Amino acid sequence: MERERFGSRLGFILVSAGCAIGLGNVWRFPYITGEYGGAAFVVLYLIFLVIFALPVLVMEFAAGRASQRSIARSYDELEPEGRKWHRFKWVGLAGNYLLMMFYTVVAGWMLAFMVKSAMGEFNGASTEHVASVFGQLLADPVQMTIYMLIIVAIGVITTRAGLKNGVERVTKVMMVALFVVLVALCVRAVTLPGAEEGLEFYLMPDFGKLFAGNTPAEQWATFGDAVYAALGQAFFTVSVGMGSMAIFGSYIGKDRRLTGEAVRVGVLDTLVALMAGLVIFPSCFAFGVEPASGPSLVFITLPIVFNAMPLGQLWGT
After folding, report:
1. For residues 99 and 103, what is the distance between their CA atoms, to the nearest angstrom?
2. Calpha distance 123→308 (Å, rounded)
3. pTM, rounded to two decimals
4. Tens of pLDDT along 109-147?
5. Phi-psi region of 257 (alpha: psi -120 to 50; beta: other; left: phi over 0)
6. I need a labelling partner for 230 at 20 to 30 A (CA). Which of 4, 14, 46, 224 fits?
7. Is 297 exposed, middle or buried (0-12, 13-18, 19+ CB in 10 A)?
């Protein structure tokens, strides 16, 4: 059987970027940035993204293109006879399964909030009410399991439809929708009363925040934590380190430069993350939400921003 191909080059770029763009950009990047002091952490993250994450992305693309396989078979295809490199594929496969467990749960939270927004639960709500709704969701394992299973079902249906008619078609629509919503949110967030302080927090680096503490030991411990978090975010945001991007490398033609493809994916991915920050931090300071709120930051902030927009319930849904 002939191997299925993408319908267009744009489809490949959007699907590849769509694999990288997701919870790491819109959910994790803002709350990690808020925990480690804002703009200074963003600078650290961008340095690690260029120095470490993009070269690994190129390598994963290279393994996929050379083997025409995913990580499940690429090591077997490429390793010299008698070597044991294929054993490393089990680490990558385990990592992908663990990531899927994590992603489906958090995506379920997102779906739950979409339903609650459509039902008008956040209309005119305060930050305290939204935080309470999020807390009630986390305290209800049955509700979380139902939404998680719905997310899994959506994923299965999409992938069973095939590369071109399933994954590519859905991703094109959702990526365009993502950018439209982010642009609308950015415009509204930066024009909120009190947004200037949030923009300063996000865009004006204060490297002293990376060394917070009363003693040199505490200061260096804080810096070490920030470095670890920035490095982890750089890898997480472009979905490298587990071989998941190798499958997209297997669809890159020999006439394309792997570095160029990796840079395009990295630029789109970073653009979404930076736009998410432009939405969250001005809104935090405008509505009195603590930037270091942790994983709940986006869930508390976004419904309030949507409330401040015309047709906010529709945008939120």
Report:
1. 6
2. 10
3. 0.84
4. 999 999 999 898 888 888 889 999 999 999 999 999 999
5. beta
6. 14
7. buried
